[in-house]
Structure formats: structure tokens, C-alpha cells
Amino acid sequence: MDITSKEKAQSRADQISAFKAELAAAEHDAVLSLSTEQHSAITQYHDDLLSRLSLKFDIDSSHKQKQLSLGMKIASFIGAIGMAASIFFLFYQFWGGLSTTQQVFILFSAPVIGLFITVYAANKEKTGYFAKLFGLVTLSCFVLNLSMFGQIFNISPTPKALLIWAVFAFLLAYAANARLLLAAGIISISAFLSAQTSTWGGAYWISFGERPENFFPIALLLLLVSYLPHQHFVGFRPIYRVFSMLIFFIPVLILSNWGAISYLNLSTATIEILYQITSFVMSAGAISLGIKKAWPDMVNTGNVFFTIFLYTKIYDWWWELMPKYLFFLVIGLSAILMLLIFKRLRNAAIGTKEEVKK
Fold this sequence. Notes:
The protein is flat.
């Protein structure tokens, strides 16, 4: 089996762990009985494979290691926040006593040094926790430094700062294989593109959030990027997909309730009805596509927004008309109906798998 990424290596390790547990259960129930030689051969094969995968990808080969890895992720995140806050207050405590030349030198050198440290840590330390920690600190320094440059030279606020932040965040994300940095880059580039779209429409860039439809092209772009190969970057494709849906469905939710801020030259009621239909169709489509492609992130996000859209409309339709006990009864019954629908879909998926096996 050709394993080329940490994600696949971890999946194979989980399969081995599940196989061992199932084999022990089958032997306990006297379903099968392996000889000592067969047991030794299987154990040796799995141990050798896990050893090679751990050496190459630094995977978690046991439940205890997974728990420790979670603790390391939390520690690295807290460490990054602490160091970023420390740098922030250090700057403000001693900033007034430095000359302009010294300030410019510090602002320029800090993110550059941080970038080199992040790349060095990513190459030397296989787990990536230190690289992610330094990457978060470096991004914080970069954002702070650009803000300080603007204050020193009295530069007017511009959306191009968002573009620069996005480029630097993407650079750090791919250097450190850090999903949090990728999310920061996606948010920054989404805000920049939306702001640019707003300026092309004649509005001031800072008011880009007043036109939710500005985010639709960005959502499509992120979905297309998710189809690109990311075999060496664990979890990047789901991040692109989830943010694509967030950037699409949140504006749809807003427009389905406040149609007056839409670009469409239609009545407010017509716009709201149009986006309400879009919300249900697209969220159901996301669930269907996620099931078809085996993307749990898309299925879960689609489920969340379908539920939000449904209960939003239930509130709009019946909150003022119904007694409160009857309103919440309708909510409970609708939840039961959704459970039955999801159960039917689940059974259909199981039936499809059985037909494929036959």
C-alpha cells in the first residue's frame, strides 16, 4: 500500500488498531483461532509497519499517544497566544523610547526572523507543533507591524493590508502545515476580495460587509481550490470546503431575512423568498454532495445550515400565531421528522455499500 501523506498514515494506523481489537473479540467468541506462528507473523508485520510510519510521518499509533497529541496541540496554541500577547505589550511599553529608524528595523526584521524560524522548525521537528506555534506568533507580529507602520508614516487604511496579511498567512500555513493559519489566510483574502468588489461598486471599502453578495464569488473560488491536491497538508481540503460553505450560507441567511441590502433589482419580499428557496436547495445539495463524495465536513456543515434555515422559517411563520406550547411541539416534531429522513438516507447508504460488495 502506497502511503504518501500523514493523513493516510494515521488512517492506516487506526485500521491496524481496529483490526487488533476485532481479532481479539473474534478469538474470544471462538469465531476463529490463529496459530502462534500466524499471530507472530501478523504482530511482527504490524509492528514493522507502524514503526516505519511513525519514523516517516510521526503518527499516533495508540490511544495514549492521541491524547498526548491533543494536549500538545492545546499547549502550542496557548503558547502562541501567550507569546503574541507578550510581544504586543513589549512593543507598547518600550516603543516610545525608540527612534524611528530603530522602530522601522524592528518592524521589518521581526516577521522575517519569525518566518525563518517557522520554516526551520517545520523542517527539523516532525510533529509540527513548534512550527505552528512560531507561525502563529509570526503572523501576529506581521499584523501588528503593518498596523504600526501605518501609525508611524500616517498611512490611510487600505484593503491592500488584508491582501498582504492573507499572502503571509498562506505562506506560513503551507510552511508549517497549520490549519489555523490557513483559516486566517482564508478570512483575510475573503475580506480583501469582498472589499475590492465593494469599491468597484462605488462604495467605501470598509463597508464591504453591507453587501453580503460580495462573498459569493469567494465561496465558489474556495470550493474550487478544495479540489486541488493537498496530500502533503493534513486537513487543508476540508478547511477550504467548510469556509466555502460558511462564506456562502451566512450571506444567504442574512439576505433571506433582510432582502433590502441585495444587489437584485426586485422587491424586498421577492428577494427574501428567492434566498429562502436557495438556502434550502443549496444546503440539501451540500448534504447530498458530501454523502456522495464521503466528505463528512460538508455533510455536517450542510446539516447545520439546513437546520438553521428550517428553524428560522418556523419562527417567522408561527411564533406570533401559535401558543408557545404548540410552537415548541412543532419544533420537536420537525426534529423527529429530520431524524427519520437522515435514518432513511443512512440506511440507503448502507444498502448501496452492500450492493457494491455483492
